[in-house]
Hints:
By secondary structure, the chain is of the alpha/beta class. 51% of the residues lie in helices and 17% in strands. Strand 4 and strand 5 (80-81) form a beta hairpin. Helix 7 crosses helix 8 (166-182).
Amino acid sequence: MKIAIDGPAGAGKSTIARTLSRELGFIYIDTGAMYRALTLKALMNNISIEDSEALCELAQIIDIHFEYNFNEQKLICEAEDLTDLIRSPQVSAAVSTVASFPEIREIMVKRQQEMARNHSVVMDGRDIGECVLPDADYKFYLTASIEERSRRRLEELQSAGYKADMDATKKEILVRDMKDTQRQTGALKILDDSIVIDTSDLTATQVLGRILSIIRGE
């Protein structure tokens, strides 16, 4: 079975996808983390995030995969655990630009499809239902108000030890929304067969319950 979860930043995709995969015993694939890892490596190697050719060369040779350590998923890139580093504000500010290049998305989509070829998966991102898993059994679209998404992102940053404020966080998310919805390839959108869930006033447990009920036909 293939389950796609799309939606904007701060809607709760990763939290729900991770928990859902555990509940169902499926493999969880965080596609956003893959783009973040590429972005982080580009920044570390002084590659301009506007240089699509150099980014493509890096994307073609870089090793990105997921490992489980004590039931916690880790993103491993070039033998390094980058799970926490890819969530930095610097990466968040640059990742939408990196992910906007069609050539980059083509490389990443092929990798993601290969990961899902022989396994039951829960995959989250921006273009999963349309581009990565168009044949997904279920296509969920999680959203939330800009205020709630900003609050969640701010809480995440502060918990990780980063200095941030609400206004700057809200601005960052609005910029990401614009880039994600307007890019040429793999734009964020609600599809005709998307199951839309507004998570603004719901706990993660409530969202998970709704999704499980739909999948189980309850």
